[in-house]
Amino acid sequence: MAGQISTIKKRLQTVNSTKKLTNATELVATVKLQKYNIKTKQNEEYASNLKRFIMAVLKSSKPEQETNPYLMKPYADNPLYIVITSNSGLCGNYNVEVLKYVTENVPKDTPIFVIGTIGYNYLMKHDYLVVKKYDELEDLQPRILNQMINNLMVLYSQYEISEINVVYTKYINTLTYTPTTMKLLPFTIDEDINAEEILLEPSRDEVLDRLIPMYVSSQIYVAFLEAKTSENAARRNAMNAANKNAEKLINELRLNYNKARQAAITQEMNEIVASIR
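Below the sequence we write its predicted structure tokens.
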């Protein structure tokens, strides 16, 4: 009986320690969720305004035949994908869902830039064509983002790739986040955007050569922020569920502990009474 009580007590201590960890992780994830959600909205506004300005440039002096490489139809069919995952776990099915989406939508012989250790390990293990890996901790640093954009623009301008796409987890709300693909290049003219004609200096192509890489960079960063928002929402939900399960288990262990302790006391009393007789 004493051994049973000791076993339950040790397990109770272990579950309590685990609950403290999951509770702390949930609180941290909640704070990060709010932070990344705010940053996403701020950067979405910047990317939207940048796109509107590009539309104004495109409508200001449209040539008879498009010559800008960012707007021309690609000659080859060799798309590139940027896949965004996390560096760590404890975030429910967040990585599982995005990698399942990659498996269903991205061919294995397609070049991939991957952000996040978990995605890199999975794609390498399953023989995907990973050409570049970027580790991220809390933020996609400007130095890393600029390096990525430079690599992408060189590949695209030299016609080594025909498209640039981002696979990321789109944040909808705290319970819903869905893997999706965003196409960045070739740039698509959105006829629904109203833009006034403007006078360009220097030439149209020179302006676009500056603006479109800036737009691609801003959209990659927005996708990254949405992915981080989704990751932390998934982590918070997973830890919240873990806390509830731990609390339920703690209550069961306390009940078993009290029953075992009561049984041990009753046995001791019976032994004392028997010895008196």
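The mean pLDDT is 82.
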